[in-house]
Amino acid sequence: MKKAFITGVAGQDGSYLSEYLLKKGYEVHGLVRRNSVPENQSSRLDFINKNFHTHYGDLLDEGGLNKLISELMPDEIYNLAAQSHVRISFDIPQFTAKTNAIGVLNMLEAFRLNAPNARFYQASSSEMFGISVDSDGFQRETTPFIPVSPYGCAKVFGFNISNNYKKAYNLHIVNGILFNHESPRRGSNFVTNKVVKTAVEIKMGLRKRLELGNMDSYRDWGHSKDYVRAMHMILNNDKPDNYVVATGKTFSVREMVEYVFGKLNLDFNKYVFQNPKYLRPEELPYLKGDSSKLRNNFDWKPEYTFETMLDEMIVFWNNELG
Ligand code: NAP
Ligand code: F7E
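^ thats the input. predicted complex w/ NAP below
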């Protein structure tokens, strides 16, 4: 039985990846932070499985990481933990840099010193590209990084240090450069889930308005379930390499809002307002990923479309709030 260790296991991707690996017969161990409300840690982990185990820890606690990795000796390590909210990274830049940059280094050291024969996946992000776009309108593995947020800058460090460790110490380390991916388990302060949840609340008469920031940015939105499949494929290839994971389609926030409100037979113009508090000091205006490298090397293509992903989120919030 293969053993996987997942940091950020209580997050959106960590929870779906756990379910995916458990179905494949893995023993899954996940790192969770101690929280005074333990339910906060388990709300996405309601699956019960004898092969699933959680351990308290933090990416900033090197001693704890070393102890866990040396005790567990996993075959696969997925480093998904991060302060993952871009706008909030402007509010707490130092914490974001510590977790998303130094935290990666802490995990790499725990892996190198204790379980160097394991395989290591680093959760890299399209936010690293920032304002950089190739002349054909896509971002891909060769596109230079010009990050425009503390989050993006810290992720570039995580990407670079993991590539450095791969070569310097001959370790099996891969990066998935994932574009935005969503689901009903997405934090409700990310734009898709915020829009869907609030639109359903408006439809039910529970709210009167939705306040957003910049509606003119474009994102390449996929579904988390499709993207955790890609993580596992990328890590299990014998040649460690880095891959973009994306749908190749881009929509503006405004188009996404229009779709969600339209599905609920609401005219979004009547309910949606801009609140400057949701604007960012610097915005990333446009993302569209070219995942040809992944699609040509593996049998991967997304099962969800932009529409089916949002439809699933609408059904989820209808059930949850209804
Ligand atoms: P998420 O839902 O925010 O989950 C992140 C997890 O990391 C949370 O469970 C969080 O714990 C944990 N965490 C935060 N700081 C930590 C620390 N110092 N030590 C230990 N754990 C810590 O994010 P996600 O959407 O699943 O994303 C997974 C990873 O992919 C992240 O690294 C993210 O940056 C990256 N990524 C995401 C996307 C996307 O669109 N979703 C795209 C590209 C890359 P708490 O629950 O206690 O807060
Ligand atoms: O914003 C705009 C906002 O916070 C998307 C993370 O998973 O993907 C994610 O980062 C767009 C931005 O995601 C609101 O300005 C408008 O242009 O949902 P988001 P993100 O910043 O793209 C990358 C790839 C990651 O790696 C990150 O971890 O929507 N927007 N109004 C808003 N965004 C939010 N959150 N809230 C608003 O009210």
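Residues 93-114 form the longest helix (22 residues).
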